[in-house]
Structure formats: structure tokens, C-alpha cells
Design brief:
Eight copies of one chain form a homooctamer.
Chain A: H1 2-13, H2 19-27, E1 31-33, E2 38-40, H3 43-47, E3 51-54, H4 60-72, E4 77-81, H5 85-92, E5 97-100, E6 105-109, E7 119-124, H6 130-142, E8 146-151, H7 158-162, H8 165-170, E9 173-178, H9 184-191, E10 196-200, H10 212-219, E11 226-228, H11 234-245, H12 247-250
Parallel strand pairs in A: 3-4, 7-8, 7-9, 9-10, 10-11
Antiparallel strand pairs in A: 1-2, 4-6, 5-6
Helix pairs in contact in A: 1-2, 4-5, 6-11
Amino acid sequence: MSDDVRKILEKVQAGELSVDEALLAVKKEPFADLGYAKVDLHRKTRNGAAEVIYGAGKTAEQITGILDTLRAAGEKTILVTRISPETARIIGEEHPLTYHEIPRLGIVGELPRKDGCGTIVVAAAGTSDMPVAEEAALTAEAYGNEVIRLYDVGVAGLHRLLSHLDEVMGANVIIAIAGMEGALASVIGGLADCPVIAVPTSVGYGASFGGLSALLSMLNSCASGVSVVNIDNGFGAGFLASRINHMGTKR
Amino acid sequence: MSDDVRKILEKVQAGELSVDEALLAVKKEPFADLGYAKVDLHRKTRNGAAEVIYGAGKTAEQITGILDTLRAAGEKTILVTRISPETARIIGEEHPLTYHEIPRLGIVGELPRKDGCGTIVVAAAGTSDMPVAEEAALTAEAYGNEVIRLYDVGVAGLHRLLSHLDEVMGANVIIAIAGMEGALASVIGGLADCPVIAVPTSVGYGASFGGLSALLSMLNSCASGVSVVNIDNGFGAGFLASRINHMGTKR
Amino acid sequence: MSDDVRKILEKVQAGELSVDEALLAVKKEPFADLGYAKVDLHRKTRNGAAEVIYGAGKTAEQITGILDTLRAAGEKTILVTRISPETARIIGEEHPLTYHEIPRLGIVGELPRKDGCGTIVVAAAGTSDMPVAEEAALTAEAYGNEVIRLYDVGVAGLHRLLSHLDEVMGANVIIAIAGMEGALASVIGGLADCPVIAVPTSVGYGASFGGLSALLSMLNSCASGVSVVNIDNGFGAGFLASRINHMGTKR
Amino acid sequence: MSDDVRKILEKVQAGELSVDEALLAVKKEPFADLGYAKVDLHRKTRNGAAEVIYGAGKTAEQITGILDTLRAAGEKTILVTRISPETARIIGEEHPLTYHEIPRLGIVGELPRKDGCGTIVVAAAGTSDMPVAEEAALTAEAYGNEVIRLYDVGVAGLHRLLSHLDEVMGANVIIAIAGMEGALASVIGGLADCPVIAVPTSVGYGASFGGLSALLSMLNSCASGVSVVNIDNGFGAGFLASRINHMGTKR
Amino acid sequence: MSDDVRKILEKVQAGELSVDEALLAVKKEPFADLGYAKVDLHRKTRNGAAEVIYGAGKTAEQITGILDTLRAAGEKTILVTRISPETARIIGEEHPLTYHEIPRLGIVGELPRKDGCGTIVVAAAGTSDMPVAEEAALTAEAYGNEVIRLYDVGVAGLHRLLSHLDEVMGANVIIAIAGMEGALASVIGGLADCPVIAVPTSVGYGASFGGLSALLSMLNSCASGVSVVNIDNGFGAGFLASRINHMGTKR
Amino acid sequence: MSDDVRKILEKVQAGELSVDEALLAVKKEPFADLGYAKVDLHRKTRNGAAEVIYGAGKTAEQITGILDTLRAAGEKTILVTRISPETARIIGEEHPLTYHEIPRLGIVGELPRKDGCGTIVVAAAGTSDMPVAEEAALTAEAYGNEVIRLYDVGVAGLHRLLSHLDEVMGANVIIAIAGMEGALASVIGGLADCPVIAVPTSVGYGASFGGLSALLSMLNSCASGVSVVNIDNGFGAGFLASRINHMGTKR
Amino acid sequence: MSDDVRKILEKVQAGELSVDEALLAVKKEPFADLGYAKVDLHRKTRNGAAEVIYGAGKTAEQITGILDTLRAAGEKTILVTRISPETARIIGEEHPLTYHEIPRLGIVGELPRKDGCGTIVVAAAGTSDMPVAEEAALTAEAYGNEVIRLYDVGVAGLHRLLSHLDEVMGANVIIAIAGMEGALASVIGGLADCPVIAVPTSVGYGASFGGLSALLSMLNSCASGVSVVNIDNGFGAGFLASRINHMGTKR
Amino acid sequence: MSDDVRKILEKVQAGELSVDEALLAVKKEPFADLGYAKVDLHRKTRNGAAEVIYGAGKTAEQITGILDTLRAAGEKTILVTRISPETARIIGEEHPLTYHEIPRLGIVGELPRKDGCGTIVVAAAGTSDMPVAEEAALTAEAYGNEVIRLYDVGVAGLHRLLSHLDEVMGANVIIAIAGMEGALASVIGGLADCPVIAVPTSVGYGASFGGLSALLSMLNSCASGVSVVNIDNGFGAGFLASRINHMGTKR
């Protein structure tokens, strides 16, 4: 942002811009205002290779409108998270959307080439954690990463995880996904020497309290190198993993 | 208890006891009333080989009084839990008390011979969990069990636990003790095929919320065969482990 | 597991296995990977006489697939928990499933012979606790135990429980099931001298907070010998009770 | 209060009071304003036979000042709750205070004669609950009630309670006091047919969460006729029990 | 109960009963066992003038079965709480049931004559609290009490409550019902000098957390003489109010 | 109210009113009692320019009845909050109701002229917060205020808020609405020098716990001048903002 | 801030400032950086007539340092909240500090003249709430407001509040302070027609959970016009009340 | 680890190791067992350039013992977190310890050279957050990173943060530390395009609930690229930041 301010100031200095025009320019919105949403048109430059629409609570029409704006602005890959098959169908009439049922996630446009530094391992404790795991994995892929999926590797059957020790120890970033007691994050955190992003899920019943148990467990992980995102936040984990996996590449 | 009732009834039938005497007998307290406590004198028969005094919130004088009563009634081994060194010192002037500083636990009298079926493994995740672990281990020993201690085997360094796989897989009962994220119980539950008693501890800070995190984690364990006792309840775990470890012996 | 490693090492020593083959063997999965699940084929040996599929969140097709694998591997008795009547009907077309409506639980195959040491008493406080109680009781039966059911024996009418004192005092293991204030576990814990597994249920309203009240009550039980499993976890209680009830038999 | 308004209005009608005087009279405070407290001088008439000062957070000087005012207004019996021995000593220099150490409660003046309808039973689960139990019992006595104390009758040793069945079933009101799992209230509620006032205490550790466990347990009591007051609120229970025990006498 | 035991013992003494018969008699259930429920046939004697079936989670068939048993045993008035109109319709085909839609409560049989000592005031803060208020009021009536209803008298419009000061101050027992902030109980508790039973309701949204806010508020009431029952527990409040309102009559 | 009492007293003094008539007058309800509701007919004078009916949990018929009463009493503008389109349709047959779908709010009658001192800014963090934001904005308009809406200005894209700095700094009152982490209130509180009313919303998932996260965040705001209303309470915020915005005008 | 930017831009346009100088100027901190704190030197202009130092967790030396800076910058009135008498003594050696013991608050410098529009009423439920109440009242006075204190007016003795109805109804802003059940805010909110700022306090015990009960109660207030600040946040309430009380004066 | 297994297998194959020796080797502990701790001697290789001792709950003697072992094993830099000045003094007698008072952290040995890819910005909202911030900053430095400290940049004075926009936007990793409402993480997350590690602190009072408010706020951050560690876990954040900042360097 400081670059933009500098450019505006230089134009004022050069007499190309009046003070009032400059003030206006500083305020001029780097987003399109659709009424129901302010669509950020500069985020790509700022945040990476793709754009995302959080679909929950938006109508198919609103999503279509946002997609119109983003694609007109040149976005090549756009994730639409948490949409129903029906919403996906309506959007698909106007935009080239590939819909993934398990994570209820659509991808508009083509996937970018894989330009991350290493692989991202997405490890999930149980079958029921797959919607969150797929949201994370597809997000990571949509941002240009090589992804290895390790599903149903919960700690109650440790040999299932240990049989994939090579993938775990060779990963550049690991996303550890678990509901119930969330122990997977600690065990992986103890085995691996790369950043581990823990995603608690709302899978479970009774004293899992909608993911609270896994969340607290992961926050208290005795393994170093583990951090946590919100319950069921597969997208957030995939996005952050991609950002870390591109560390050596962007600068 | 039905035996006692039967005996009383038989005496009534035999005319040895009037109805009013019988009513009184049914009510007659199988405990000594010290005012501040009703000391159960039959519990040994009912519950096992030792007696316990929960020391927290009792004065040295009160504990001494209860000990007087119990020892007069013939108790050979009496645990006194959660007492300060100073309280232990005062009690020790009247009774043969061995005091263990880490778990703040005293044992009055001699330890019984080890008559359990197998070994009880007491596994603790970290050094700070030792007070609870020792309370559990000493309790199990006071009730006549062979105990193996595995301390500092938290899942963040899985190899520390795996290097003791033999002990874990050879145990008759395992007590898994952990604070923070409490993952140890699930990992052990997945490895072992004996009953696992999980004890959450209040060790930790921040989002451990005084042991709540470990407690929820253990309750949600995805491993079968795991049950949970109260936070920091080493005595309860040791007592239950002993009861299970004597299953084949008592009946 | 150490036995397997030893065998592999002996083959390497004998020249029957190359180092790379050995490494592979260590990693070779003792489970069948169905994509959506890793089906453990050795668990029977490790855990007892039956196998279980947690049905919640799985489709009838997925469950059928897992059943195919397990039965092909020789499993005689397989529990399928928490499935709807409709799911049960679909599964039943391919597998010999007996469906129990109250606990929403299916059993595939024949029940094993009762080879436990004693009886398991399943005591439930109220009529509404029956789904959890039946899940526990049927699980215990599926793992080869004699089960006595004591339903509607909540402490508000103490005479109902006391009229079954013989069963309570003669049990080898007791499962105490209650929602609301969960006091049944403490009262039974005080009466019995065998291990008591407490199962809080989500039965209740208002300040029962989905079973939290009963859960906390049971964790704080002033009776020794009581441990707790997750809210509504009838299966876990039945499984653990069976494990304890087979203590003298397996080793 | 409507009587007072009527009297004022009648005086206005009779010309004995001007409108402004009447307005003032309505507002005239039936309390003495000490700056740090508004001491209610009419409460005795309204609420019963004694007055109470909640001592926590008040200095000995403030309490002495309030006592001055109350005794000047003719109060015969005044409870001062939750004060330290030192505070009690200072107050005792000016007022005839009898101090009870266990509940940290002082009584100024003489106890009234026992004019309640029946007996109030104060039942406490454990020795550690005695401070709350004594606060309740002494309060009930200070308000003119016959009190029977049943201490250390927790449900883990049911025979201790059952041996006092006569007292329980003959009570006019019962105060059931328990920490930890709070089951005593439900068991007594099921046995008795009089109002039961349950008092959860903060006795316990770990998952007792400062009395929350007992509180929830008591609120969820499956026994009818049980109501609950705040954690550790012995005074409130004693006061309410007295009010109920005087039901037939006051009107 | 002690009377029953005495009678049995006297028969043994008189030789009218063998010891085994006596043992059996002590155990003989004072309830009918319907399989899904143990119907208490002696509760009327023990608890008051009516019987209640908690309908939630029971089928119309089960309720009908319990009603058959109770009416065969001579019960004149039976409440059936928390049933749907459809369930009420089915029950009504077999039993004379009057259904009240707002509290979803049915009354089988005739109301008893009003034999309480005074009036019970049922005060509710808002219109939405009416289901709970009517459950309380109808329960009190079914147990033979005169009831005065004061609805929509929440403290935000204090004049609405103050305009009914006469009823409040003339009541023998008051049931104060409120959701949201639950302040009604404290205000009534401060005005009245009779026992006040506070019922928090789940009415509200956001930070009312399903009645938790009102519950905590009522437990912390600064007014003496207030006790609390579970959230939405209109029946419990009505039952307890009746018990208190019959204090002078039963003994 | 004191004015009314004074007038009644003056009439008594003047002999125009008997004491009994006066007592009655004091009690005479300044509301119409519809059975299911006490409709306050004097609130307008007391609280501002409009009246409100909280629609949740009321039938269309009840709302219509209240509207009849209010409009007969001369109310010009009446808000009906939280009603479904179907309820709105039914009401609309009898009353001139304009229905707003997003906040599910109806306005009966004409909007008053804008007579507030300045502008009220309604700032909402995300698109999903619009129902609450519109409830606040429409309420403020219904009470006679100029409203500026700033939607989708969450702090994750700070430039969106900063581009509206003029409106923020020129506001007389600001309503800051946000779910999830609720940071908007703190940021606006730091920028503005007028009262800021923070409204947490239940928008979010996982650890937002139904608005709890935003609520706590706003209560802990490090910015001075921020106060908080209940989760999703757009009406309350709009009403309070109006009251503040009319501060210089009413007195 | 936009004015500052405009001035900088005008200087760039006029050639008085180079682009780099301008960039620097935009960034130049309107605060003095003391290392341990960034002391805001422009806040007075932005926020009102006084400055505040939150003393908790700061050393006397740090506070003295900040005072040096603020007074050098011309601040006339500076509040120092939450400091011990000892800290106050040390500060007082260098600065003219008046210390108030009850709220543990110091005021450096002279109080400003009272220039608010009306009076601010500070109403507190109990004597124990006085520290918070005085923090609020002194803050309001330090920001130039006329303050009326109404202490010990909790709703359990409603007549104490009603006797001050004139002050309540004549206030421009009311701060309602209460712990325990927090009902005072709702009752005042129903009586008054000015903004009411509710301050929950941590006064209480047991189920008050450190102020949570009062906080929830106040957030759920059924009275309109009430908003809430953090538990014990007397300063925040006094500051906001002052801001509202100066609404007609500042613009 | 697979490398180690391979080497052992190769030795078995080569006949250099018997099967039993190999089994032993697999189990041989890569740690020194001090009784009270198992000191990991291979962690450096696995986890980075330094070693850490969590000092809370360890005696000075225990820490000295662990330091002896680690330094004998060649560790150059060892952090000792959360120790008192007195503990530091005792340790310092045996080891070259530099003690930092604010974060209560000691560093034994020399700091490594800075070999991270970029800079780590440690931003803290308030002065009271400095202990956590310094723990994070010193940890990052001890693991070989360039650190920029931005303290007292909370969002209530947004200009303080914006004046450091260059540092924020130029960072390779940012650690955002805040108590109270924790909004700093979201605002920084929105501005920066690098990974942001959020650390909630226990700073605050009332509804901050020991850091819960900040924790929930950060977990719900609407900004992408933010993950969270435990409350007050400065070490964990510093360690993870270092790991990410070395991404391009280690592989």
C-alpha cells in the first residue's frame, strides 16, 4: 500500500494530481461494490494465485454475481466453498465449475501449475473427517501445491500412521485433521520436523461438544511446531499451508 | 448386606431378637461416629485390602483420630492422601507413617503382599504429571499389586513410549496419565488390549483450563477399552486398577 | 508387534529377506485400504472376539463394503452401531444382519458363546436411557458375556434399585447408565465391590446441557471403583466391561 | 406496602398532610443510610424473626456500625456471616457476639425460642461440607427452628443415610448439602415427602469446577420436591427452610 | 418404609412369615414392571394427591400402558406432561384426557378439590414464558391448589408487576418464571415474604444460552427466600409449590 | 411516574377522589390486557417516537391483536421484528405493513421525520451480518434518524473501512456489527470519538460458538467508548443509538 | 486524520515537502515511544478532556514516566486506574496525585469544570460494588460531569431504588452497577428513558462465576436502551457516559 | 527413523548383529533417563539449532541436571523458559545463563548466527503483553532469526500499527500477540501476505476469562493465513516462526 501512496504523492508533486484528486485516489476503493459485497480486485496480487468465495449464507445469484466480477478482472482459479449441489448446479450454468460433493466445494476455472517448494501432506484421523480434509486438500491444490492424502490414520491404530512415516517425514507442511480427541496433531507434531497445521473437526458426539474437545487438545499439544485453525476450517489450513509451502518461491 | 438382614430376620424368627431390637440392629451403624466423620469399619471386607483417608481439608488431629479408630479395628494398611509434610510429621508422631513427598501421600502400616493377577503399568506423559502418577502407583501397591512405572513418555516423542512396548503390551491394567492434550490415553488405548484407566491432570496452562482439555480428550478417545476418572484422581485410578487386577482372585 | 519385527529380523538374518524387502514388510499394512476406510484385519486377534463398525456418518454402501472385507477375512460377529432402519434394511440384503431398533444397532453373524468370567449388570436410571443401555448390553453379549438388565432403577425411587441388590452385589462388572443428575453411578459404586463403568446420557433438558450434568456428576463420584466413558457411549462401556469380564480367561 | 400508601392517602384526604408532604412520605426511607450501606429497619416485620449482615467484603468497623443501628432499632438476634476470627474479635468488643469457627459465622444477641412447625434436617454428604452445613443449621436455629444435623451421610455409603431414615422421613423440611457429584439431594428427594432444599458446595477438585458439578446435578434431580440455592449458600437454605417451617404459624 | 419393615418383622416374629418369605417381601416391588417402566403404585401415599407421567420420549402406547396400570390402581388424577397433540389424541381414545395445548400437558381424570392452605401465585415475565407458566399452574391445580396467574409482568415495565402487589404480598407460595435475564425472581423475592420458587426458561436468544443466563441470575438472587428448579421445569415448580402450600395440612 | 402520583394526591387533597378511588387509580393499569400480553399504552411518551412488537414466538393473530390496540391508541409507527414472510402477509391484510425480508422485520405505518441530532452509521463486517445490520438500521430510521450503511467493511480488508473514514469520523453514533472475531468494534472504537454500540452476531462456525467469540471480543475491546448489546440484537442497538442521537433534542 | 493527510498533500503540492518527507510525515508517530509504551499525545483532541493510564501491570516508575510525558504535553487531568496505595505514594512524590482508596484510583492534576449536558447517575446494587461504582463516578467527574451517586439500591429492596425515582428519571445518562444477578440494570432500564450503561461486577460467589452471571443477565436485559461493558469496567462506563453526556456540546 | 532401522537391518543381514541385539538396538533409547526426565539427545538433529527446557514445575536442581546432560551432549544454545530469578541464580552458578526478567527466560550458551530466510516481526498489542512477546522474540533469536519488535500497537490506536506498515509488509513471518479482544491478529492478517502466528495472552480482566476471549477471537479470524497457539505460548510461536523462516534453507 505504501507504494501506491508514494505514487500518488509523486503525482501530486509533479502537479499531475490536485490535492483533492489525490485525497480521492487514496480513498478510491480497490474493490467493486456489488451492494451485498465489496469484491476485492487486488487480493490476488496480495495473497497468492487464487481467489475464494465463502459460499455459506450466500445465494446462487450473489455468488454468480461475484464470479462475474472476479472473472472479468482476470481471475483464473476461484474456489467456492460450502455450497449445496443445487447451488453448484445453478452457478455451473454460467461458470465452468467443478463440484466436489464430499467437501461441498466448487472450483471455477483451471487449476494452476504446482509451483510450491515441497509436498503438503493432508492427514485425517477418520473417515468422517474427510469433508474437512478434502476442503483442505483441494484448497492447497487450487493454490498450486502437490498434495498427499493420508486418510483414516487416527492414533487408535498407530500402525496405520507409522506405515506412512516416509510421507510424514518428507512433507514440507502437514495438515493434521481430527475430531473427537484430536490426538493426531500431537503425534504427527512429535514425528515431523516441518510446520504442522492442526484442524479440529466437529466430528464426534457427547463430550466432543461440537469440536471443542479436539480444539483444546490441539491447542495444548505438547509437540512444538503445531498451530491451530478454527474447527472444520479446511480452507484456512489449506491456504496457510500453501503460503508456507511457497515461502522460498515468492521473494 | 442381604446376609446381615437374613441373619437378623432369622434371629427374630428364632425369638432371639424382638422386633424393636431387630429394627435397631438393621439401623445399627457399621461405622464409628467421630462427630466430624463416620468411620466405616466394614469397608475392608467390602472393598479390598486397605483403607484410605482423603486428607485434604482435614486437620492432623482429625486424621489421627480416624487412624486411631481404624487401626484399633485391625486395619493393617492405611493410605492418607493429599497431606502436607507438616501434617505428615504430626501424624507420624502417633502412627507408623511413611510419607511420599511428590504425591503428598502417607502410608500407615506395612504394604500387603502382591496378590494381583498381573502387573499394573502406570504411564505418565510428563515430569509434571508425577505427583498424580505416584499417587496412583503407590495406591496400587498399597492394595497389593505389582506396578511398573513409565514416566515422561508423552506422545510428542513417540519413540520414548514405543521403546517400552513390551511393558505396555504385557500389562494386565494400564493407568495412562497426562495433562495438556491428554493424547497418551488414546495412543496407549490403541496399542494395548487390556483395560486402560485414563487420568487427566491439571498440568498445563492457558487453554488447558485446569485439566479440562485433557479430560475431554480422554473422554473422546477413539480407542476402545479406555475409561476416565476425575482430573488428578490418582487414587481413584490406582484403586480401580487394583480391583480389576484382582478380578480372577477374589471370587 | 515386537513378535512380527522379530520374525522379520530373523528372516533377514537367515538371508530369506533382503533389507529392502524387510523394510517393506515392516510397513506392509495389516489393513485393507478401501479408500474411504482402512479396515483393520488383525484387530480381532488383538482386541477380542468381535469387530465393530461405527455406522454414524457412513453410507449403507460404505458399511456393506467394510462388511464384505471383514467377513471375507473370517470375522464371525460384527456389530454395526448407530444406523437407521433404512440403512439396516439395505445392509441386510447382502449380510445376515439382526437389527435392534431401540439402540439402532445391527449385529451381523451369530453371537459367540458366553465365555466371560461372571455376569455384567447393565443398570439404567430411566426409560429414556434404554437406547444407550441396549447398545451397552448387546455389545457385551456380542463379545461373549452374560448380561443382566436392570432398567428404570433411578435413585429417586431407591427401593427399585434396592429390590435388585442381589444382582448388583453379585455382578462381575456393572455398567451404570443415567442422564439428568447421573446419581445412579455413585449409589451403585457405593453398594458394589466390582468395577463400575458409568455412562452419562444426553437424556434430560435445560441444565442437563446435553449430558454435561451427568458426565460431571459421574466424574466426581465419591464412590471408589467408578470410571466414566463418553456421553451416550454404550458401545464403549459394553466393550470395556467385556474386556474386564474376560480378565481371568485370556492370559 | 399498600397499607402504608393507604394511610398516607387517608391523611391527605383528611387534610392532615399536604400533597408535598405526602410525596415525601412515600419516599421517606424505611432504612438508615450509613453511607456505605442502607440499613433496612423494617425488614424484621417483613421477613421473620432475625436480621442478617453478609460480612464478606465489609470491614469490622462497617459491620459494627450496622450492628449499632440494628440493635438501636430493637433487633434481638442478628447473624453476621462470613467473617474472620479477627473481625469477630473486634466486633465482639462492642456487641455480644458468639462466633462459630467452622462456618465463620457470628450471632449477636440471644437465640429466639423455637416456634417452627416441625424439625429441619440438615444433611451433609461429607466432613468438608460442614462449614456450609453449619451456616445453614445455625441460620435455621437463629430464625427459631429445631434442627437435626446428619453429617457425613454421602451416598457412597448408603447405609449411613439409611440408618437415619426416621429423621429423614419425619422432617418438615430437609436441607441436603453436598459437593462433588451432589447425588445426596436426589436420594433424599426420593425418600422424603417434604420440601428439600439442595445446597451444592464448592468441595471437590478437578471436574467439580468449584461446585458446578454438584449444582448441575441438583438442578437435574429426577426427584420431585427438590429446589436449589447458590453454591455454598448455607444461609439462604437455612433462611428458606425456616420460612417454609413457619408456614402454618405466621398467617 | 420403616413401618413396612416393622410389619414384616412382626409377622416373622409371629411366625406368620418364614425368613425367606420375609426377605422376599422386603424386596417385593411396590411397583408394576411394564418392561419399559417400573410404575410406582405407592407414590400417591408418599408424595401427594396426584400422579405424573413425564411424556417426553415415550410413545402413546407406552403412556397408555402406564395409564392403564395407574388407573387400575385407583389413581384419580394423572398428569401427562410434554406430549404432542397427536399423542394426546391417541391417549384420549382410551382415557378421559383433557389436553392443554400451550404447555402441551394432559390431565387424565378429575381435578381434586382445592385443599391447600393459601393461594399459589404463578408470575411469568413474558408472553413466551406461558408454556412453562401453564405447566406450573396446571400442575399446582392438579395437586389441589388455588392458583392466581400473573402473566407478562417482567421487570422492564415494573408498573405491571406493582399493579398486582396485593396478589404478590398475599400469596402463600410464589412461582416466578422468566427467561432472558430472569430478574423477576429477585424483584418478587424482595417484595414477598413467602417462599419463592424461581423457574428459568429457555426463552431468549444469543447470550441467553438456552436459559443459562436466567438460571445463573436466579441462583445469584440477592433476595432471600428464593430457590431454583431446572430450566423450563414448570412441573417441578408446581409440585414443590403444592407441597409447601399443604405444609400445615398434612401433618 | 411521580407526576402521576402527585396528580392523584392533589385530587385526593381536593376531595375529587376518595382514598379507595385513589388507591385504584395508582394501580390502574397503563396497559391493555389482551390475556396473552399486557400492551403498554403509555410507552410512547416514555420511550420515544415508535412502538415495537417482538414477533418471535407470537402468532399472526396475537400480533394483529396487539397492533389493533396500539393503533387504536394512536401509535403512528410500529415495528414488528422477527416475523416470517407468511406472518407478515397475514398481518398485512389488516394493517399497512411494509415487510423487509433480510431482517425479517415489518414496519406498520409511516416513518417519522428525521429529527435526530446527527447521523447514525451502521457498519457491518460481512455480508452475512446484513440481517442484524438491517434490523438496526431500519429501527434507527423508524425512530427518526438519518442512517448511513457501511456493509462488508470487516478488518481483514482494512482499506474497505478506511475508505469510509469520513463517514466514521463524522457520525454522531456508530453501530458496529460483526460475527466471528468481532474485531470491527475495537477498530472503529479506536478511530471514532462518538459512542460506539457493538452488536455481536451469531455469524460464523466452529469456535464462534453461536456468537460467543464476537461477544467476548467486543466486551474486552481495548477501545474506550464501546458498549455491547446481546448477540444479534439489531433492534436494541438501533433503539439505543436513536436515544443517544436525540440527546440534545428531547430535554 | 484526513485533515492531516490533506495538509501534508498540500505541502507536497506546494513543493514545501518532498515525496519522501511526506511519506515520513504520514508515518511520523503522533505518540512518544517510551520503549515500554507508546504514549498518545493527540488523544485529548480526539477523545475528550482527560487522559487515562491503566495502572494494572505497570510499575510506579513506568507510570511516572508516562505522566512526565503527558504533563509535558500539557495534559491537565490524568486518571491512573487500578494502582496500589504504595504505587500511588511513589507517583505522588513526583506528581500532584489525589488517591482514592476504594476504587484504587489516582487523579493527577485538577478536575475540569463540569461542562456536560445533564447529570450522570451512578447506581450500585450493593456495598461491595462500591469500588467499581467509584471508578465510574470519579472517571465521569474527571471528564467534566455532574455525578449523583445512588449506592446500595439493589432490587431485593425495591423501595430503596424507588425512593430515588426522581434522580433516576431526571438523569441524562445512568450507569447501573451490580454483581450477583445483575437485575438492577433491567429495572432501571425499565424506569428510565435515557441511555443506561450496565456494568456487571465480579461481586458474588458460587454460581456468580466471577461476574459471568451478572454479565449474561445484563446482556439479556428485556429493557430497551441498555448496553453493557466488561465486568468491573467502571472506567469504561464512566468514559462512555461522559461522551454521551457531552453529545450536544461538542459538535 | 527409517534410516536407523535400515542401518540396523543391514547389520543383521551382514551378520554383524544378532536378532536379539537388533531388537535391543531398535529399542535403545535415544535419550538419557534422569529418572525425573527422559532427556532427548537427538532432538537437535530433528528439530533445529537449539534445545529447550520448560522450567515451570521443575526445581533448579532438576534443570541443572538436564543442562549437564544436554551440554555434555554438545548442545550450544539451550533455552530455559518460565523460571524465577532465584532459580536462574542457582542455575547460573553452574552454567553460563543469561536471564531475561520480563519473560522469565534464561538462555544458556551463545546465540547462533542468524540464518533464517527473512525477518520475523513480533507485534504485541499492549505493554502488559510484553512477557509473552519477549518469550517469542528471544526464542526466535535463539533459533537463529532476525527479529523486529513492534510493541504497544493495539488496534484501539490504529495509527500506531499503520506507522509500522513497512515492517509488517516486509516480514517473512509475523507473530501477533494480544490479550483482551485479540483483534490485532485479524488486522495484521488482513494487511500482511505472510504466515501470521497468533498468540492470545491472559492479559485482561472480567470477560477476558484468562485469555479465552482473545483465543476465540483469533481462532475466528476472518483473515486468511492466521493460525493460533495456546494462550501465553510465546515459546511455541517463536519456535514455529523459526521453523517457517528456515523453510528454504534446511532442505
